[in-house]
Each structure stands twice: as structure tokens, then as C-alpha cells.
Design goal:
Helix content: 25-40%
Number of helices: 10
Distance between the termini: 50 Å
Strand content: 15-25%
Structural class: alpha/beta
Strand order of the largest sheet: 2-3-1-4-7-6-5
Order of helices and strands: EHEEHEHEHEEHEHHEHEEHEHEE
Radius of gyration: 23 Å
């Protein structure tokens, strides 16, 4: 087994959540802006792809070096042992980005990295003429930040938020990775009630059910690195067996999702059944102001409308006020709301126990946390 330098990429503000997940899988890691760095073998690549709920993707860091000229970029890229990763017929498109660097033309950097790898591979495999590029896919990225070049290979393929259960979605669906993060930032465990009063297409309740039964988020999908000849199929089989063995399918759950839109309830139910969790989640058309419960020690997680569009704000803020009134009696419940409205606490009628800055896509939001008084049995 080889040892790789690996990167789990993370949305801004979620690096610590991803790092906690990486450590729980048994890998020491360090945190940087937008990424978590750790070392591991082929099994680590498979396990992190299978289990990380909050990371965007897992990449192999092939090399890192300084380059301020195109010649330097070419020669240092060519010196890397690409043959250890790429077979002679590999498809290897190169994407790129450059920030605050002398080499600022991304298209030129991509072309030079591509040319350098072709040069290296052709020489190693004693190949003249064009490389066929009809084999397994290796997506390479050249990222340059302040003249430091990082070359990576993506092991995930589609982003890790693509769980494979989303048959339908609404206008502005919450990414599955962010939904899982919102849940992991609460104190919820599967033996307590869980409610999402703005469930939309059901992402938060579905992610809660996966967490509650310890079902690996990647159980229902494929990964690009499964097609690589140096990633043994036994590794993937073992990791899938581990996921199956660790799932707690008999863990009873009380998960409830509601939405004002009956069409979204239908979509949410379809998505839950697609994930194999349809029997575990109750969905109902309902306004948040009508929510009542006699249960204790529950958790509410919501991604309500933000009122971003002109004209929407007054009605959204009225809804926040009604929500505050509906939730006021729930003393033992912990309530977590994500919104970009900086006046949320005023309309809700209560100051949050804690606030955390997060990004929902490109929208800067706050995660308002209201911790309940835990009632002991």
C-alpha cells in the first residue's frame, strides 16, 4: 500500500466539521482555508469518499512547488513521476485556477501542465505520436496561490454532495454536505426527536436519517477512482462491507419534515424513498406557526426563506416572528436556524445562545443556535 498526501476540500466555515469527521475515521489532519490535509493509503481514499458527510471531494496532492515562469512550471511538472498515477491510455483533463500569482493566465497554465505530463508519460511508456486517452479518467487540477503551485488528482468524481437519492428538488436546494454539517453542529442523536419545519425537497431530514442510522453517505453511488487500475477492487469491496456492517438499520428514529408547499412534500417523500429511508421520515404540509409537540428534548434544524428578493422581506420576517411564538413553549428543545437575515433574532424574539458564520452557496449566512434545557428522564 502506498502513502498519499490527501486533501478533503471543504466549504468556507466548515473546515473544522470536516476535520472532525476525518479524525473520527482515524486519520490525523491539519486544517487550512477550504481544505483539510491528511495522509493515507488506497483504503483511506476509499473510506473518506465513502464516509465524509461534509467534505466536497477528496483529492490526492501530487506535488507542491514554487513557479514564477512558464518554463519553471513546465520543468517542475515534468519532473513528477506521473507514471505512478497515470496509465499510458489515461484520460487526464487539466483544470486550473490562479490567485495573486505571476502566472495568472489559467488557460496557459493548464496547457503547460498538460504538455509537461504528456511529455513525461510519452517518454516513460516509450510512446511516439498522440496519446490515445481512451482509458480511465484522472481529473488533474493546477492551483496557484501566491506563486505556489499545487497539483492534485480528484478521487471523487462527482462532488460528494451527490449522494444519489435526489430524484427532484426545489428552486434553491440546500447542498447535502451543508445539510449534514448543520445537523452535525447540533447536539442531536438518533434517540431524540428531530424536526425540519422548512424541509423543501427533504435534504435535512434525509441526512438526519443517514446520520441517525450511521449509514455511509456514499453507499448509493460510484467514485471516479474505482476505475483506476492501481486502486484494488478489494479495497472498495472491503470499504462497502465496512459501511454495511456499521449501519444501524434497526435504530428507531423520530424524524419529521414539514413545508408550506404540498408539491415539495411530494418531492421530499420521493427522495426519501429513493434513499431507502421513506419509512423512517414523516412529511406533512404545514405552516411553521402551526407546529406543536408534547415531546421533550428534541432538535429543530431549519433553512427557512431568507427574504433575499425585494418585496419578500416583510412576509418572511412576519414568519420568523410567528415561528418564535410557536417555538417559545419548547423549553427542552434545541433550535437551529440558518438565514442571511441579520435581524433574525429581533423578529424571532430571542437572542441566540450562539451564532456561527456559514456560506450557503455564495450567500453569507448565520447559523442561529438556541440550546434547550435538557430534561432528564
Amino acid at each position: 500500500m502506498r502513502n498519499f498526501e490527501l486533501i478533503a476540500t471543504a466549504a468556507m466555515g466548515l473546515e473544522a466539521v470536516v476535520a472532525k469527521e476525518v479524525r473520527e475515521l482515524g486519520y490525523d489532519c491539519t486544517v487550512d482555508n477550504g481544505k483539510v490535509l491528511f495522509k493515507g493509503d488506497e483504503t483511506a481514499i476509499a473510506r473518506t469518499n465513502m464516509w465524509l458527510r461534509t467534505a466536497d471531494r477528496v483529492k490526492i496532492k501530487v506535488a507542491e512547488f514554487k513557479a514564477t515562469t512558464f518554463d519553471e512550471l513546465f520543468e517542475k511538472t515534468k519532473a513528477i513521476r506521473w507514471e505512478e498515477y497515470l496509465p499510458v491510455n489515461a484520460q487526464f483533463p487539466v483544470s486550473g485556477k490562479s490567485v495573486k500569482s505571476k502566472l495568472f493566465s489559467v488557460s496557459d497554465c493548464q496547457a503547460i501542465v498538460k504538455k509537461a505530463i504528456v511529455n513525461r508519460i510519452s517518454s516513460h511508456y516509450k510512446k511516439t505520436g498522440w496519446l490515445e486517452e481512451n482509458g480511465a479518467l484522472f481529473k488533474i487540477e493546477v492551483a496557484i496561490l501566491k506563486d505556489i503551485v499545487t497539483l492534485t488528482i480528484d478521487t471523487s468524481g462527482q462532488g460528494l454532495h451527490k449522494r444519489g437519492y435526489r430524484a427532484g428538488q426545489g428552486e434553491a436546494p440546500l447542498k447535502e454536505t451543508l445539510a449534514a454539517s448543520l445537523i452535525l453542529l447540533t447536539n442531536w442523536t438518533g434517540d431524540r426527536p428531530f424536526v425540519d419545519p422548512f424541509c423543501g425537497s427533504g435534504t435535512i431530514p434525509i441526512e438526519a436519517a443517514l446520520i441517525g442510522q450511521n449509514i455511509a453517505p456514499g453507499f448509493n453511488r460510484d467514485f471516479i477512482s474505482e476505475s483506476w487500475d492501481w486502486m484494488p477492487s478489494k479495497v472498495w469491496n472491503d470499504v462497502r462491507t465496512e459501511a454495511e456492517d456499521n449501519a444501524k438499520y434497526d435504530q428507531p428514529l423520530e424524524i419529521f419534515g414539514s413545508d408550506i408547499d404540498h408539491r415539495m412534500i411530494k418531492i421530499a417523500q420521493e427522495n426519501a424513498f429513493e434513499a431507502g429511508l421513506g419509512d423512517l421520515i414523516t412529511f406533512k404540509q404545514m405552516q411553521v406557526k402551526d407546529f406543536t409537540t408534547m415531546k421533550e428534548n428534541g432538535v429543530i434544524v431549519g433553512n427557512p426563506p431568507y427574504g433575499e428578493r425585494l418585496g419578500d422581506k416583510p412576509s418572511v420576517q412576519k414568519m420568523y416572528q410567528e415561528m418564535g411564538q410557536a417555538f417559545a413553549p419548547l423549553e427542552t428543545w434545541s433550535i437551529y436556524m440558518l438565514t442571511s437575515d441579520e435581524e433574525f433574532e429581533t423578529h424571532y424574539g430571542k437572542k441566540a445562545t450562539k451564532k456561527r458564520k456559514l456560506f450557503n452557496g455564495f450567500i453569507r449566512t448565520d447559523y442561529y443556535q438556541y440550546w434547550g434545557k435538557r430534561k432528564r428522564d
